[in-house]
Design goal:
Elements lengths: L12 E3 L10 H28 L6 H28 L5 E3 H34 L4 H4 L2 H17 L2 H9 L15 H7 L5 H34 L4 H34 L5 H26 L1 H15 L1
Antiparallel strand pairs: 1-2
Organism: Bison bison bison (North American plains bison)
Function: Putative odorant or sperm cell receptor.
Keywords: Cell membrane, G-protein coupled receptor, Membrane, Olfaction, Receptor, Sensory transduction, Transducer, Transmembrane, Transmembrane helix
Length: 314
């Protein structure tokens, strides 16, 4: 059984952790972080604007890219208030309810990004391995259903452990490990029975992030097999080019997650600054890099953005 207590006993706040020992440099550190958040917000909004206003981009591949941009945009918005709030000296603490809400969106959006990347891998598999049926398989109605399924999968299954956080008794020092809230961070401070949350969270990670990674890898094995069977070298090169941006997005998402996990598991002797830095990379690196990757690697996006900027200059 989960040991529950009245929510009123958890009305206290939690101390957010910035870069310990570098408090005097916070005004300078806030400059690159503010720039990163500005690029995250503007870059993803620009991608969405280009896809929305360019009729030639109203295709399944770009609809999924728009889902990815929305996810990255929301991830930036979910953490900007605490990360920049600490660096600018605006906040130091966060209430339990706000912390739980932030953790819900951070984890939900992480699962959502993984699901979107899996869907994009499926899109590339159909486009390369079964191009004649591409438009009949990925119809607009089916894309809407896929989007709703991704949304439900990402936020429905994380609800039970997040709700439990509200009723745990937190008797350890209310000091978080990062400048934002994570489920595992709150569990570390709880004195209640957390076995349900621990096992549930582990199964959730296995059934989402790990399963998605395996399915993405499997889809690319099939894609590689299909591409190598193409006789024309030029066609092989063209097929590979359509996948490069997605492969980069997958690496940009999974490498920070693996790195942060390794730091938490084996880096207890490392400076707290390293943990905070890795946490911020996990949160900010994918939303920062994805608009850049797709703007550089996808010719339709790149040409539309160049045309947009040329009009602004003129």
């Amino acid at each position: 059984m989960i040991a529950l207590v009245s929510p009123s006993t958890n009305s206290s706040s939690f101390l957010l952790t910035g870069f310990s020992g570098l408090e005097q440099q916070y005004p300078w550190i806030s400059v690159p972080f503010s720039t990163i958040y500005a690029v995250v917000l503007l870059g993803n909004c620009l991608v969405l604007y280009v896809i929305w206003t360019e009729p030639s981009l109203h295709q399944p591949m770009f609809y999924f890219l728009a889902m990815l941009a929305i996810t990255d945009l929301c991830m930036g918005l979910s953490t900007v208030n605490t990360v920049l709030g600490i660096l600018l000296g605006l906040i130091q603490e966060i209430s339990l309810d706000s912390c739980i809400t932030q953790a819900y969106f951070i984890h939900g959006l992480s699962f959502m990004e993984s699901s979107v990347l899996l869907t994009m891998a499926f899109d590339r598999y159909i486009a390369i391995c079964n191009p004649l049926r591409y438009s009949s398989i990925l119809t607009n109605s089916r894309i809407i259903k896929i989007g709703l399924t991704i949304l439900g999968r990402s936020f429905f299954f994380i609800t039970p452990p997040i709700i439990c956080l509200k009723y745990f008794h937190y008797c350890r020092p209310h000091i978080l490990s990062h400048s934002f809230c994570l489920h595992q961070d709150l569990l570390r401070l709880a004195c209640s029975d957390i076995r349900f949350n621990s096992y549930y969270a582990l199964m959730l990670v296995i059934c989402t992030l790990l399963l998605d990674a395996v399915l993405i890898l499997f889809s690319y094995v099939l894609i590689l097999k299909s591409v190598l069977a193409i006789a024309s070298r030029e066609e092989r090169h063209k097929s590979f080019q359509t996948c490069i941006s997605h492969v980069c997005a997958v690496l940009v998402f999974y490498i920070p997650i693996i790195s942060l996990t390794m730091v938490h598991r084996f880096g207890k002797h490392l400076s707290p600054v390293v943990h905070v830095l890795m946490g911020n990379i996990y949160i900010l690196f994918p939303p920062l890099m994805n608009p850049i990757i797709y703007s550089v690697k996808i010719q339709q996006i790149r040409s539309r953005m160049l045309r947009l900027f040329s009009l602004k200059i003129c």
